[in-house]
Amino acid sequence: MKGRIHSVESCGTVDGPGLRFVVFLQGCPLRCIYCHNPDTWNTKGGKVVDSNELIEEMKDYLPYMKFSNGGITLSGGEPLLQPDFVLDLFTKCKELGIHTTLDTAGSVHPANLKEILNVTDLVLLDIKHIDNRKHKEITGLSNRNTLKFAKLLDEQEIPMWVRHVLILGYTNDEKDLTELGNFLSSLHHVQKVEVLPYHKMGEYKWEALGLNNQLTELSPPSNEEVEKAYRLLTKKLIR
Ligand code: SF4
């Protein structure tokens, strides 16, 4: 099956457990003001690849994956914009005994979502804001699907690592973080919470694409601010 990808990272270490073959799929419905991969947005960009060829490429890294308890991660962009491709890749990976991780913002709910989740071992769920109005301000879309997605994962007992990007003045309000922490504490399958400090490494891409970057003057949060956010998010978490 053909799919459209942005790039591949053969030995990723941050998108799930162990060493991972990370495939960044092309296309995203969100427009996060801090996105460090705006070159993944265009659904017609990237390159078309065949899932069998990707699997063959991935096989070269199987020893490293197995040795480190790693696997494959489908990221983006938003991988769920290409649900049939995700299902095909994950099904083939499960046949090979490979751990599968889906890195998503949960904003797209394709018709075959249940089938995809049946072959998904872990979800990295990016919750951008608990406040719907502020979520729309920083991503362009409502957070309703994302929160629904988290509940669906919980019902299906799928482990999730929740990620939250910390941007000063946008996502670091104490009340909002407490409320997001309360939401997380209502779930039973959150294995990990990661606070990702906003960084400026993708800025050159905004410039290259001629996009208006609202955050050029903004500094990344300090370690103390990241730790404080982490405490607020995890205070009531069920483990
Ligand atoms: S969901 Fe990810 S890829 Fe999409 S706009 Fe937001 S940060 Fe960028």
UniProtKB/TrEMBL annotation:
Full protein name: Pyruvate formate-lyase-activating enzyme
UniProt-listed Gene3D superfamilies: Aldolase class I (3.20.20.70)
Keywords attached to this entry: 4Fe-4S, Cytoplasm, Iron, Iron-sulfur, Lyase, Metal-binding, Oxidoreductase, Pyruvate, S-adenosyl-L-methionine
Gene Ontology CC annotation, any one: cytoplasm
Statement: the UniProt record of this protein carries the keyword Metal-binding: yes
Family assignment from sequence similarity: Belongs to the organic radical-activating enzymes family.
UniProt domain Radical SAM core: residue ranges: 14-239
Cofactor binding mode and count: Binds 1 [4Fe-4S] cluster. The cluster is coordinated with 3 cysteines and an exchangeable S-adenosyl-L-methionine.
EC number: 1.97.1.4
Catalytic class of the enzyme: oxidoreductase
Gene Ontology terms for molecular function: 4 iron, 4 sulfur cluster binding; [formate-C-acetyltransferase]-activating enzyme activity; lyase activity; metal ion binding
Cofactors demanded by this protein: [4Fe-4S] cluster
Chief location category: cytoplasm
Keyword Protein biosynthesis: no
Reactions catalysed, as given in the entry: glycyl-[formate C-acetyltransferase] + reduced [flavodoxin] + S-adenosyl-L-methionine = glycin-2-yl radical-[formate C-acetyltransferase] + semiquinone [flavodoxin] + 5'-deoxyadenosine + L-methionine + H(+)
Pfam families linked: Radical_SAM
Job description of the protein: Activation of pyruvate formate-lyase under anaerobic conditions by generation of an organic free radical, using S-adenosylmethionine and reduced flavodoxin as cosubstrates to produce 5'-deoxy-adenosine.
Subcellular localization: Cytoplasm
